[in-house]
Design brief:
Elements lengths: L1 E5 L5 H9 L4 E5 L2 H9 L5 E8 L3 E2 L1 H9 L3 E9 L3 E4 L8 E4 L1 H14 L4 E4 L3 H11 L4 E5 L1 H7 L2 E4 L9 E8 L9 E9 L6 H10 L5 E8 L7 E8 L5 H10 L3 E10 L3
Parallel strand pairs: 1-2, 1-3, 7-8, 7-9
Antiparallel strand pairs: 3-4, 3-11, 5-11, 6-9, 6-10, 12-14, 12-15, 13-14
């Protein structure tokens, strides 16, 4: 399998891709949007991108990319996240910490307790944090990185398992061109953009699922990038679009909102 992921090497996306298929050919991209574009252009068979973390929440860049692409989510991968503070072999007092924004959010309490005076420098990925640390040559700089990055970049582990929540996991989604058939244990991800705004609108939209016994596992809103107060609602429901209750709910929803099915795929929880 050829999988495009957020690079460089040593990210949690890299760990998740290898856990999914240890023999996969991994293609590293600079951004999540680049991953989606790589698959869309045929440069990779599929892509694996982070959708949400159990501590830090949803990844907005992924939601935006899924909304703008013709690709579909084909599966979800739940990957445990173990954060480490790493430095160079000669590491002394830590004055600067390199961290991806999601990693910082997952380790904020640890950093406030143990390194309250350290400067936090945001990076584009955990792999890039490791790269920047290595390039700096600084003994007073550290980076928050996965276990995989420590080995790949020859770093020294200063503190292990520094995430604030030991149950920290990230939900990745694999994107491709073909939507899987119903497995009997599925999830459907939707983007809903209401055609009008009036009292009770959200109640009416979500009520279509409740009336048919379809369980919602997630709902959140993001700006439509139009006028202020204009939102797109992202909803996860349990079931496949081939299942009659879900199909009937979507038929009614299309009378009230523009709908994009981001994917209908086997679920892991």
């Amino acid at each position: 399998m050829q999988i495009a992921i957020l690079g460089p090497q040593g990210t949690f996306s890299h760990e998740a891709a290898l856990a999914l298929d240890p023999q996969a050919t991994v293609v590293f991209e600079r951004t999540i949007r680049d991953v989606v574009d790589k698959v869309g252009s045929g440069g990779a068979e599929s892509g694996l991108i982070p959708l949400e973390n159990s501590v830090a929440g949803s990844v907005g860049e992924t939601l935006d990319a899924l909304t703008d692409t013709d690709l579909t989510v084909t599966r979800e991968v739940i990957h445990p996240v173990v954060q480490n503070l790493a430095g160079l072999a000669a590491a002394t007092e830590v004055r600067t910490v390199l961290a991806h924004p999601q990693s910082y959010a997952q380790c904020e309490n640890f950093l406030r307790r143990n390194y309250p005076a350290a400067e936090i420098v945001q990076t584009s990925s955990n792999g890039r944090s490791a790269e920047m640390l290595l390039e700096s040559g600084r003994a007073d700089m550290a980076a928050i990185v996965p276990e995989l990055a420590i080995g790949l970049y020859g770093l020294t582990r200063l503190r292990a398992s520094i995430q604030d929540n030991r149950y920290n996991v990230t939900r990745f989604v694999q994107v491709g061109r073909e939507m899987p058939a119903s497995s009997g244990y599925d999830r459907t991800s939707l983007a809903l953009y209401p055609q009008t705004d009036h009292p009770g609108l959200l109640f009416k939209l979500l009520g279509q699922f409740a009336q048919r016994g379809v369980n919602l596992s997630k709902i959140e809103s993001r700006p439509s990038k139009g006028r202020l107060g204009d939102y797109i609602f992202f909803v996860d429901v349990q079931g496949h679009i081939q299942d009659q209750p879900v199909a009937e709910a979507l038929e009614q929803l299309r009378k009230m909102a523009f709908i994009k099915v981001l994917g209908s795929y086997p679920r892991q929880y």
